[in-house]
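Troubleshooting: if your tokenizer reports a length mismatch, compare your output against this known-good record of 599 residues.
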Amino acid sequence: MLTELHIRNFAIIDELVLEFGPGLNILTGETGAGKSIIIDAVGLLLGDRAAVEWVRAGAEMAQIEATFLLPADPERAAEVSSLLESEGLDDPDNPQWVVLNREVRLNGRNVCRINGRSVSLQLLADVAGLLVDVHGQGEHLGLLRPRTHIHLLDRYGGLMAQRTQIANLVAELRRVRSELQRLRQDARTMAQRLDLLSFQVEEITAAQLRPGEDNELEAERRRLGNAEALTSLAQTAYGILNQGDGEVPGAIDMVSEAVGRLEKLARIDPDMAQHADEGQALIEQLSDLARALQDYAESLEFNPERLAEVEERLELIANLKRKYGDTIEQIVAYGAKAQRELEELGNWEAKTTDLEAQEEKLLRQVGALSAQLSARRKAAGEAMAREVERELADLKMVRARFGVAIEQSERSDGAYLPDGRRVAFDSTGVDQVEFLISANPGEPLKPMARVASGGETARLMLALKSTLAHADATPTLIFDEIDQGIGGRVGAIVGQKLWRLTGLSVNANGATPTSHQVLCITHLPQLAAFGDRHFTVSKQLLDEGGVERTHTVVRTLHDEDRIHELMLMLGAHSDAGRRSVEEMLGEVTQVKQGAFALQ
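Known-good structure output:
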């Protein structure tokens, strides 16, 4: 149940706190005062698109916060609690309460919170959708679109769980068919792809590439291309170390002579022993260096054939890089990927056969489940038709008849029904559902869009909403000017029906009485008289720094104030008008007391 709605800086509302109670909550007031804006604010909690234009002029952000008491229905309460717990949003200190919050900022950023913790807009909408349902202005137009009828029927019959099973199967079937379509490409295109992949795999495999090979070859090419110069440099360095030039001894000999003298020094002065050892180590290092230079010079050779081989190999690698990747690793990875695709395409016939078997199995599963669902829809449609007709009779359409048409369309690639027929299907099953109406005696049932007038459509919506609400576990139902197209004569009946949704009516199947909190915006005093709480919404012009600004004000009406508001709605300003309102309230009291007496 929605207990409190706090709106700040939203449209023409600067700050508004509404405290709702159980039963039927009525909001009335002049056109443009902001009644529907309140419903728009609730819509933001349900995930409606937010625009910066909603932010009140002069403010940085708009904020909507709603406090809910968990539903009385144990299943719905458990569903809400489970969702909150799974997301870590439950409040152990206040487990019976849920606080939803959404901020719309001028910079376009939205912030959503549940119990004070930031969440995604989708999660906010999911939780809000379990707590409140808004039936807005013009929603009756949806009744004229047949594609919405199947959803209303399934909701009435409690068939959504079975429909979800079918939707999952259909999603898998679509995946299988998509894969089949991909495999059933044009034979020429397939052959071309196979040839290309075969060539690529063969070319990369034949190259027998090794990681780092290109760097090694580059180094070898530099050595081979500069063999003579490298040999000369190595030999010259070796000669300087080991041979000298005839007149000057080699570096090793000179260092050896110096070390010999160091050793003599060390025999006289032991402090020089360490330096003598260091000199001996230096001789060994120079000797090692000379041998390394000699070996290096001997290993070098001018080999034009090997140089040509290296350059040819590098050209091959460069060519592969231009085609398949910037590095040898990327080339090898490309080849592995091409090999996998080649194997997949090479087995496309076997895979196609397997997918065709899966498709056939899924088509039969979809057909079998859809046939069961169709049978349940027919039973639900008959029960719904009888209940809607009773509701229409209450709304002064006594002779009207309502029907639910359920049909299938044959299709050669459709799902298999148990009777062997193949029919079209989608995620809802195999049925096309359309509501039919005969508003006048003797007239056949026809689609509502063709025969229902504006007033009849409004009453049809009321009858359907009243019928569906009994099957709806959503605790708070909001009706925004549901009385459009309804005259005062029917207004009292509409008010009574909305009031009975709060917990004092039983549906046609004998179910336990539902218990809804109902919020309704109305212009009909006959409807408003049934309210358990009555709020009036008005506009005021207030001075803000020398500038007049429009403010929305909401007052809770009691006793004399309520009588005065109903008189204004009735357009009555005389004592006779007052007596009419008092009589109307008296009749409402008798209806409510009578309803209680029946319990």
